[in-house]
Design brief:
InterPro entries: P-loop_NTPase, ParA/MinD_ATPase, Rv3660c, Rv3660c_N. By secondary structure, the protein is an alpha/beta fold. 39% of the residues lie in helices and 18% in strands. α5 (131-144) packs across α14 (331-345) and α9 (215-228) runs parallel beside α10 (242-250).
Amino acid sequence: MHRPLVITEDQDLLDDLLRVAAAAGVEIDVAHAATHARPYWKRAPLIVVGVDAADALAATGPPPRQGVLLVTRAPEDPAVWRRCVAVGGQAVLELPAAERQLVDEFAEASEPVVRAGHTVCVIGGRGGAGASVLATCLALMGSRRGLRTLLVDADPLGGGIDVVLGQEQATGARWPDVVEREGRVSFAALQEALPTIGELTVLSWHRGESPPIPAEAMRSVLEAAHRGCDLVVVDLPRYVGPAAAEALSRAASTLLVVPADVRGVLAASQVLIEVRRHTAALGVVVRSGVLHPDVIATSLDVPCTGVVTDQRGLSEALNRGDAPPLGDRTPLGRFCASFLGTLEAR
C-alpha cells in the first residue's frame, strides 16, 4: 500500500510532521523539493505540503487531485489560502493547533474504513441481570456468522468477560496494556495484540487493580474497530463514566437487560437517567419473570427488543469454564440470531 507524502524543505516542520505521523502509527514518504514529488503525486493516498514548498510546487503545475493539505505554523498569514489554492489543496491546517486532526488524516489515509462496523452496547438494568453473558453471546454469534467481531469489556469490576468466554488463560493484551499506548491505533495492530479466537477479538481486564478507562483510550479502540470490524459489542458498567459515555455516543444500538420484576424495573429506570444523556438508540431485553414485557417497556418508555427466558445448564457451563451454549434452540441463541439479523438488515 502506498504511503502519505510530505513535501517540505523546512527541517523543523518536517520533524513536527514525522512526530505526528508516528502518533498515527504511519510511515510517510518525504520530498525535500517540489520537483521530487512528481513520482508520488498520483499514487500517494494523502499529500501534506509545507507552506515553505507551496510556491515551488505550484510552479510545477501539479495535476488536480483530492487529498492535498497545506500545513503552516504562521497564524493568520493572508497568503496561505492563495498558496493552498495554487497547489490544489482542500484545506489549511495550522500547527500545533491542528495536530490531532492531522493525526486522523494520516491514519485515515493509511487505514481507510473497510468494514464500517456496527457498535452495540449492552448494560444491565440492575446487578446480576445477565448483561455480560448477553454481550458475550452476541459477540460469539456474530463471529460464528462470519462477522469480524470485537468484544470490549468496559466494566473493570465485572470479573473479566474473558472468563465468561472460558478464555481467561488466553495470551494477549488487556486494558492496562492498551491504555498505555499513545496515539491512534490500527485495528490490525489491535487484533495482533489482543486474544483472538477465529473472527472474535476480545479486550478484557487483567486480575488486580483496575484503573478507569480514559475516554481517549475508548475512542481510539472504537475508531479502530469501526474501520476494521463488522460488529463491536461493548459490555458496559451500570455507572456511566467518561469511557462508557464515549461508547454510548457511538452505539448503533444499546440493549438494557431488565429482569421482569419490580426491583429490576425500578433499578433500570435509574440507569436510564444517565444512559439517555448519551444515546437515544435504546431497546429493552427482558429476562422473563413475573412482569409482562409490554408493561416493562411502557414503564421505562423504551421499546422491547426481545425476551430471553432462563436457559437450562447455562450456569453450570459458565462455572465449568465453558462458553455459553448458543444452539439454535437455546433462548440466547434464538435472541442473538434474531437481533443480529435485524442489525445486518438495517
